[in-house]
Each structure stands twice: as C-alpha cells, then as structure tokens.
C-alpha cells in the first residue's frame, strides 16, 4: 500500500470530476498536492474541496512567470495541503474573487492587486493593502519587470515633493 494513498485518492477524485480543468498535477510529497487548474473552474473546484473538508484557505501566493501572472491557493483540511495554481495573461490580469467560498480571502486578494496588479473580479472596494496610501499607482513591486533602483528613485522623489 502506498504511503501517499490519501493524496492519490483526492487527486484522482479531482481529476475524475474536473478532468477538463486540471492542466497539470503532482503529489510533491506526503500531504502536499499541487494542481494547475483553469481559472474558469477554480471556484467549482474550491466548492468541491470545501464539501470534502478542505475548509481552510491558509494563504494565497502570487507569482510572476514573465508573460503570465497567477496565484496559488493553499487549501487544507489540516492534514493535507492542496495547492491550486491558476494563471492569467500579464497584459490584462484578472482573477475571480474566492470570497464566496473562502470569506477570509480579502487581505490575500488585496495583496494580489497591490503587489502584482492582478484585478480581482468581485473583491469589494477597499483600501490598499499592504502598500501604503499614496504609493505610486500602476507600480506593482513584486512583478519581475519592476526594478528596485527605479522604485527607490520614484519613492525618494515622491518623499522630496511631499516635504
């Protein structure tokens, strides 16, 4: 019997139920499953996982792959962590809010907007987070194309103007 039996079972269930939406998957090690899914099926997969006891969204991690941006949704039942990875084109990055399934996602989704410039469709208006109010609009510091030197210069110039 495989020591990854539970992980294999849940991955098989997801693949069987959402075969068209699963683009890639791997059981990285015990208790760690990675699944690339389509944005269109993300909410349905999350609802399914929540029904199966994966009720805790521990965090959302943003990433920049060059031509695409994306997010990894780390969902757990406190035994196994399922990492759902979705991608969106960098030129018009939009992801649907997961608030209908995981109401605790607000601050994580605000981070995606501030730090990566990913528009979260369905996220209620609110203040910037974690970037401070007045941070230069259109500058998303965790994108690979943002140069630290340019960002420091921009921020220093802003500080000088405010003095």
Number of DSSP E strands: 7
Highest-level CATH class:
Alpha Beta
- The CATH topology corresponds to Beta Polymerase, domain 2
| Main structural class | alpha/beta
Give the distance, in angstroms, between the N- and C-terminal Cα atoms.
68 Å
Q: Total number of helical segments?
A: 4
Helix % is: 25-40%
Report the β-strand fraction as a percent range.
25-35%
What's the CATH architecture?
A: 2-Layer Sandwich
Radius of gyration: 18 Å
Major sheet strand order: 1-2-5-4-3
Which runs of at least 5 residues are low in confidence (pLDDT < 50)? none
Element string (H = helix, E = strand): HEEHEEEEHEH
- Tell me, what's the shape? elongated
Q: Sheet with the most strands?
A: 5 strands, mixed
The tally of structural domains comes to 1
Average predicted confidence as pLDDT: 88
For CATH, the homologous superfamily is named as NADH:ubiquinone oxidoreductase Nqo5 subunit
Can you describe this structure?
The protein has a single domain (about 5-160), classed as Beta Polymerase, domain 2 (2-Layer Sandwich), CATH 3.30.460.80. The chain is of the alpha/beta class and about 160 residues long. The chain is elongated. Strand 3 (about 55-65) and strand 4 form a beta hairpin. The model has no long low-confidence stretch (mean pLDDT about 90). It is built from four helices and seven strands. Helices cover about 30% and strands about 30% of the residues. A five-stranded mixed sheet has the order 1-2-5-4-3, with helices on one face. A two-stranded parallel sheet has the order 6-7.
């Amino acid at each position: 019997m495989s020591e990854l039996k539970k992980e294999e079972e849940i991955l098989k269930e997801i693949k069987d139920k959402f075969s068209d939406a699963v683009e890639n998957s791997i059981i990285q090690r015990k208790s760690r499953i990675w699944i690339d899914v389509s944005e269109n099926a993300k909410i349905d997969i999350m609802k399914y996982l929540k029904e199966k006891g994966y009720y805790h969204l521990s965090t959302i991690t943003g990433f920049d792959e060059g031509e695409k941006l994306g997010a990894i949704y780390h969902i757990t039942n406190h035994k196994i962590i399922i990492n759902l990875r979705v991608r969106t084109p960098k030129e018009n990055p939009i992801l649907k809010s997961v608030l209908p399934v995981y109401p605790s996602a607000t601050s994580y989704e605000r981070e995606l907007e501030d730090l990566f410039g990913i528009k979260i469709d369905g996220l209620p208006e609110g203040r910037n987070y974690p970037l401070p109010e007045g941070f230069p609009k259109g500058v998303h510091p965790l994108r690979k194309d943002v140069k630290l030197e340019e960002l420091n210069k921009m921020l220093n110039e802003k500080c000088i103007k405010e003095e």
